[in-house]
Each structure stands twice: as C-alpha cells, then as structure tokens.
Amino acid sequence: MATPEPPAARQHLGHGVGLRVPHFEQALGPGLDVDLVEAISENFLPGGGRPMAVLQRVRATMPVVLHGVSLAIGSVAPLRHDYLDRLATLIERIEPAWVGDHLCWGAHGHHHSHDLLPLPYTEEAIEHVVQRIDAVQTRLRRALVLENVSSYVGYRHSTMPEWEFLREVVLRSGASILLDVNNVIVSAVNFGFEPQRYVDALPSDRIVQLHLANHADRGHFRFDSHEGPVPEAVWQLHAHVVRRHGPITTIVEWDNGLGSWTQLREQADRARANEAAALAHGSATP
Ligand SMILES: [Fe+2]
Fold it and tell me: Could you list which residues have their CB under 5 Å from ion ligand 1?
C-alpha cells in the first residue's frame, strides 16, 4: 500500500473563506483580501468556462485548496474514474495546496445521495475506506484531506466512537484531517458527547485544515446550516483546537443567506484573531 506524504506537512496558509459564485465579481474586481480560498471541486471541473477562469485568476494571487463533495470515499459503489480523471486535470491546472473530500458515503449503485452520510464506525469499515483512499491517492498522486461530517443518524453496530474511527483511517491510509469544528459540535449535541473529547483524541500532525461555520437549533437536534456568521460555541471550540493542536489553516464556510464579501472577510479576520488570542492568552476572543 502506498503511503503518501501528508499534504505540505502542516503548512499554515492563513485564514480564508469558501469561494462561492456571488464572490466572483469581487474576485475579478477589487480582489479577495483573505489569505487563501477553498473551492468546491465540482464547481470548477474542466469544461466549466467562467468558473475556471475566475479560479485561475484567484490562484494567481493566493493559495487555493480544493474540497470535493461527491467522492463518496466510504461507499461500496465503484469509484468513478471519470470523476477522478477530471479532478486530476483540475489539480494540474490549479495546483492547489491540497485536495480533500468528506469521510462519508453518499452513493449506492446508481443512486447518489446529496447527503454526506456517516459511516458505521467498525474495523470492517476502516479496512474498506482505507483501501479506497489508497486507490484515490494513487490515482491523484497525492495524499487526501478528509473532513468529518455532521451526524444525525448512527449505527447500532458501531464498535468505536467517531474520533477513534477518524484517527485510525488517517493513520492507516496516510490521509490527513480537515477538522470541521462546527460539525463536531453538531454531532456532539446530537449524540451527547463532549466535543473537547473528540478534538483531544485526534493526532495533531494530521490536522491540516479547519472549517468554521454556523448551525441551526432545530429543537430536538442541531443542523449544519452554513447560514450566518460563526456562533460563539464554535469560536470557543476553535480556540480549544488551537490550544491543543497549534495554529492551523482555517476556512470559514457560509453558503446560505450569504452575507456581503465584507462580512465574510471579517469572519476570516476573526478566525485569525481568535487563533492568535488562543495562542497568547489561552482563551477565545469576545
Ligand atoms: Fe465543513
């Protein structure tokens, strides 16, 4: 089994945002005054016309990380080689700092779910997903960065907590972690565990990127909404992550009810300030 180097061995690229279509005018005009952006791979696959032109323009001025939503690394359906070929071409053109997707399944046979569904946390699932990660890493000739998803359902036959599953998958596959701080909180509330326990169990040198976002309180559960600014609970856990694992490249995700570019950029600025405060004083900024 190939054991690729972790991406950029924990290179800190700064604090940025997820690039969305409404930001294209800002990108083509005044420019994006953040340290880096994250692009959803599927929105920029070859043949995309204007989106590719925008992304190449952005890439000329700052680092870009690619983040996919349809790899379905945990599914049992065969890997889609046409998708991997197009992703490989995008990687050649953009030269991203790293490339990732979600540690989930979302496709079964010819049916593709738009949900990013958690895997059962079993030894069998670890072996299955590690084999598929190895195949993708070999095809793309680079280590993958895998994100923890938010959970609303669990499996009775899981034999370990999510954090142990994630840790084993990355240690055995050579992949790295994109730790979504908001998703940890959503899953922690929905399943009744301490979010700090999840964070503390992860291997520091494998966490190469963080996501910060908002979630919604739906009464009997929390939902990963990506709507509105990052809430206080996520800033607090972000500070804990930084104190525990050190400074880490961070992307703010805001997809629904998208605010102005200024509001979004201010969130990236706050992530930078929150990280600095956590390192200096051991606490989150107010
Ligand atoms: Fe995320």
Answer: 180, 211
